[in-house]
Amino acid sequence: MSDASGRGQGNQTSARVIEQSTREEGIVRAGETPITHERPEDWGWHGETGKTGRIAGWVMIVLLLVLTFGNHRGQVENLFLIGAALVILIMLLWDSRRRKNAWRSR
To answer: Which residues contact 95 (CB under 8 A, 6 or more apart)?
Structure first.
């Protein structure tokens, strides 16, 4: 990555370049420690939406299918609405199968 000439350190002479196994090389100021791993839970992400997300998926399917009834004359709109509902349905069925076969269901 960088060589002994200090390339990549900018104008900071007190900084050092470190090699990170899963990231690019990083510049660390003197007296600081590099971040080894940042967990998603540390900044607020806790996984999936759970039961609320699954309920919202089913509600969206119903709403998309209700939108097929209207005053539009062409069928192109219906194809997109039904297609989007099918995509959500496939995702919900996949999630249901994943949770059923998981070691610990949520």
So the answer is: 54
Residue 86 lies in a domain: yes
When divided into structural domains, the chain yields a total of 2
Amino acid at 84: A
34 and 56 co-located in one domain: no
Query: 36-75 burial, b for 16+ CB within 10 Å, e for fewer?
Result: eeeeeeeeeeeeeeeeeebeeeeeebeebeebeeeeeeee
What is the per-residue pLDDT across 42-80, written as a single tens digit (0 to 9) for each? Answer: 676 666 678 899 999 999 999 999 999 988 888 899 999
Q: How confident is the model at residue 18 (pLDDT cuts 50, 70, 90)?
A: low
Position of tokens 């089913």? 58
Domain of 72, in residue numbers: 51-100
State residue 16's pLDDT score.
Answer: 67
Instruction: Give kind and range of the element (H or E) at residue 66.
Output: helix 51-66
